[in-house]
Write a structure and sequence with these properties.
The structure is a single chain. Helices cover 61% and strands 16% of the residues. The protein contains 10 helices and 8 strands. α5 packs across α7.
């Protein structure tokens, strides 16, 4: 039945009750609008609850005034469509129920990926308990990253990617390599793999570092590794002892060589000192010899000069008067006197012969022979 039929079958009230009936229909319209508003509210609220959103997300959807914390930016959805509007930290306004808001961190953040099982190339199952990834989302790429991968973008490029890369790495290496040999390289390999894919598909994500903890291996294999490590430690200790002995022997050798060199240097210095003393004595003797030779030469020159001057003086003295004087002196000294003509003639001849001998004066200078150096008399 439609509403017209209902009004026709309903008995008409008396004229006096029309005013009250008109007032009841107006109240019904207001009640209908109010109930419709409540129904819409319940539908929106149930829609949020069906989306499994957190209470804070529901509160963000219902609130008008909201706050963007420091280190984050505000991102908005209107009717499920991501908006290009991005707000900075601070207080902002939005439409309740229609506009949904989420804060997105743009500073450094650390994601911890836990319990990552993987199998090595030899078929041994190991488990990485925790891997930490430090990354950052650049502010200029927030819209494109959330548009393609949503608010939980790190699930795709951090958590799932770490699982994939760890399994790829383990499947291509043996347990010995993963646990010991190349374990120190896993951090850099994971970082390079994550950054390579993020640069290609999500440029706004920057991987800063990756920290990988030691994996958990089966107990029996772990004991074998511990025994191997003990044996390796013993070998290293033996090698170090051998090195210590070699170093001590080398040190003793160096000390002996140093001592021998020191003795040799002292002997050389003493020998050089003696040679210098001998050389100094030789030079001193040469100087003394030169002095002595100069002294002897000066004596010889003086003697030669004296003899030469005496000869010149004697030559000047050979006059008839001087000879007559010497003759008279010689006769005067003779106490014997002889008289007679023959004796006088003999005396006259002797006088002439004496004058003849005296008129000739010859100076003989004997040539000096080989000269031998001797010490001066004042040094003897």
């Amino acid at each position: 039945m439609d509403s017209n039929q209902l009004r026709a079958e309903t008995p008409q009230p008396p004229q006096g009750g029309r005013g009250r009936g008109g007032g009841g229909s107006g109240f019904s319209a207001i009640l209908t609008v109010f109930l419709s508003f409540i129904a819409i509210f319940v539908m929106v609220l149930s829609n949020y609850m069906m989306m499994n959103q957190s209470p804070s997300t529901i509160r963000n959807g219902l609130s008008i005034l909201h706050q963007v914390p420091e280190g984050h930016v505000g991102v908005y959805w209107r009717g499920g469509a991501l908006q290009k509007t991005i707000t900075d930290p601070g207080f902002h306004l939005k439409l309740p129920f229609i506009t949904h808001y989420e804060p997105v961190q743009v500073t450094l953040q650390t994601d911890q990926v836990r319990d990552i099982p993987c199998g090595t190339k030899g078929g041994v199952m190991i488990n990485f308990e925790k891997i930490e990834v430090v990354h950052r989302l650049h502010k200029d790429h927030v819209h494109d990253t959330l548009l393609n991968y949503g608010v939980q973008y790190d699930n795709t490029w951090i958590y799932d990617k770490i699982h994939h890369e760890i399994n790829q790495f383990c499947s291509s290496h043996s347990l010995q390599q993963v646990y010991i040999d190349v374990f120190d390289q896993i951090d850099e390999k994971m970082k390079d793999a994550l950054q390579g894919d993020c640069t290609r598909y999500a440029p706004g994500i920057e991987i800063m570092s990756v920290r990988v903890t030691k994996p958990t291996i089966p107990e029996s294999i772990r004991r074998n590794f511990e025994q191997m490590e003990e044996e390796r430690t013993k070998v290293l200790i033996a090698i170090e002892k051998q090195r210590v002995v070699e170093k001590e022997a080398e040190t003793s050798k160096k000390l002996a060589i140093s001592e021998a060199e020191k003795i040799a240097n002292v002997s050389r210095i003493l020998m050089e000192q003696k040679l210098m003393e001998k050389d100094s004595a030789r030079k001193q003797q040469e100087i003394e010899n030169q002095i002595y030779m100069a002294w002897k030469k000066s004596l010889a020159d003086a003697y030669f000069y004296r003899v030469l001057k005496e000869a010149e003086v004697n030559k000047l003295k050979l006059t008839p008067q001087f000879l007559e004087l010497k003759f008279i002196e010689a006769i005067a000294d003779n106490t014997k006197n002889f008289l007679g003509e023959k004796i006088v003639g003999n005396q006259q001849r002797k006088r002439e012969q004496t004058k003849l001998k005296s008129s000739t004066v010859t100076t003989h200078i004997q040539q000096l022979g080989t000269f031998y150096l001797t010490k001066p008399k004042h040094q003897m």
